[in-house]
Amino acid sequence: MWKDFFYFSDGERRGIIVLVACIALAVVCAFTIFVHNDEAASPKENFEKEYVGFIHSLKKRDYRQFYAKYAHYQPREIHLAPFDPNVSDSATFVRLGLQPWMAHNIMHYRAKGGKFRKPEEFKKVYGLTEVQYATLLPYIYVNDTFQKKDTTGILIKRNPQDSLKVIKYAAGTMVDLNLSDTTELKKIPGIGGGIARMIVGYRKLLGGFYRIEQLSEINLNVEKVRPWFRIGNDQTRRINLNKASLERLKAHPYLNFYQAKVIVEHREKNGPLRSLKQLALYNEFTQKDFERISHYVCFE
Q1: Counting beta carbons within 10 angstroms of the beta carbon of residue 227, is it exposed (0 to 12), middle (13 to 18) or buried (19 or more)?
Q2: For residue 184, what are the CA distances in angstroms to 102, 141, 164, 168, 280?
Q3: Where are the domains of the chain?
């Protein structure tokens, strides 16, 4: 019975033999090609193939919306300092907390001949929020050169009193840097309305000057103005580090966001601060930081 089941004619046997031979040949050829290609490809070629495949897969997805969203929420440390919107570069605007595209718009506006003739005009910057404007306003000063507008040959000034000639102090006169207002500061040779407002504005942010050298922080030539100024003892306004909020702390020119956060978190975890030495182990502070802020802080 089984013999009858496996009985093939001569023609059938020849066909089966040819079929098996073809299958075996196909298997051998496929294996040979695979091994050859694997050995022939160098590591560099394999890497390039994988890289091309990776890039191709990226092109199938649109990451622009994700990137825009991510960039919008990227934390950026803000450095508040006095600035003139007519001469500051784009990097300065970004450090002040503006988005790069806003800085680009300001530079484009200036390139077309636009000028900010008073600090309040900075509010018209496209995209600037009310909060940003209120934060930056105390830091804005406009040089006298940009406060004048000549349209028909007539010189127009912001303030009619600016047309009055300012009588300058004689050599040897000294004024108190922390008590002088803009009117008195403008009587010092070399100081105009713009610089006077800049000094008063920065003095308000600091809480008073403790050294004349601090004027270099607003890009003034200290040696040039030193003969005109004196500073009384302990005239600075101090911040209570155990009560001040995070916003109040980081608003001071000598404290950034991360330092203010360390102070708030330290007092929440460890109780009231008694001295700056308790913050010495934090990497956010340097010895120079402690020296500067020691004139502006208290603990009760």
Answers
A1: middle
A2: 36, 17, 14, 9, 41
A3: 2-59, 165-230, 239-298
Contact 228, 174 (CB under 8 A): yes
**Given a cut of 90, is residue 95 above it in pLDDT?**
no
pLDDT > 90? residue 96: no
3-state secondary structure 79-110: CCCCECCCCCCHHHHHHCCCCHHHHHHHHHHH
Beta carbons of 116 and 149 less than 8 angstroms apart: no
CATH of domain 165-230: 1.10.150
Q: Which two tokens stand for residue 216?
A: 């270099």
CB proximity list for 211: less than 8 A, separation 6 or greater: 231
Is the pLDDT reported for residue 41 higher than 70?
A: no
The β-bridge relationship of strands 155-156 and 149-150 is: antiparallel
Q: Which residue's structure tokens are 């019975």?
A: 1
Identify which of 170, 171, 172, 169 has the alpha carbon closest to the alpha carbon of residue 185: 169
Q: Residue 128 — pLDDT band, cuts 50, 70, 90?
A: confident
Tell me, letter by letter, the H, E, C secondary structure of 127-175: CCCHHHHHHHHHHECCCHHHHCEECCCCEECCCHHHHCCCCCCCCCCCE
